[in-house]
Amino acid sequence: MKTVNIIIADDHLMFLEGLHTILNEMPQVKDVHLATEGKQVMRLLGQFEIDLIISDINMPKMDGIELLTEAKKHKSDIKIIMLSMLDNHRTVHKVIQKGADGFVPKFTSKEELQKAVRTVIDGEQFFSDIIKQRYMESVFERKKYKDIELSQREKEVLKLLADELTSKEISEALFISVNTVETHRKNILLKTGAKTTTGAVKFAIESGLFED
């Protein structure tokens, strides 16, 4: 039987210890290392031969999505299962696009978590039913925006508007006139069908514009 070394990461110690107990029941699991934040996981990756990471998304210093990206860069064949109380479709879409091998909500059962681990270490992906549902919602939502195209400059202006910069501050940041900023703002509202800057920012978030 193939056995694996695992890192589990979560900034809540009680939950971390619960995961440790669940994994130790599995004959496929050899060693389990514990981490409370993403940078600690990266240090452990440099010290030990790790096959699988199970990580929360919401963590300090380096969140789970950033950890997912960095861990895959460090070791391209490492398997990663994400855990989160967040199951909104934008988060799910981002995690899957970043290359997660599995994703289960933190309120999942012990049996489903163990099934996810077995499935992933056998070389397949595992996503809970609710995660699959959220992913399909994200795909449907993005299709609504596929015919709306902003220019690169309009995207830059919109990102700065989302950061609550004034037109004058945006003009200085992008080395363009205030009038040009206002023209871009009007074009953004026209293209997105938003009535306000807040509405345009909401469009950007829902369409994935601000994602890496």
Automatic annotation (TrEMBL):
Q: Which superkingdom, per the lineage?
A: Bacteria
Which stretches are transmembrane?
none
PROSITE patterns (UniProt xref): HTH_LUXR_2, RESPONSE_REGULATORY
**UniProt-listed SUPFAM superfamilies:** C-terminal effector domain of the bipartite response regulators, CheY-like
- As stated in the Swiss-Prot or TrEMBL entry, residues carrying the post-translational modification 4-aspartylphosphate are D56
Q: Which UniProt keywords apply?
A: DNA-binding, Phosphoprotein
Domain spans labelled Response regulatory: 5-121
Q: Is ATP-binding there in the keyword field?
A: no
Task: Tell me which residues make up the HTH luxR-type domain.
Answer: 143-208
InterPro entries, alphabetized: CheY-like_superfamily, NreC/VraR/RcsB-like_REC, Sig_transdc_resp-reg_C-effctor, Sig_transdc_resp-reg_receiver, Tscrpt_reg_LuxR_C, WalR-like, WH-like_DNA-bd_sf
Q: What is this protein called?
A: Response regulator transcription factor
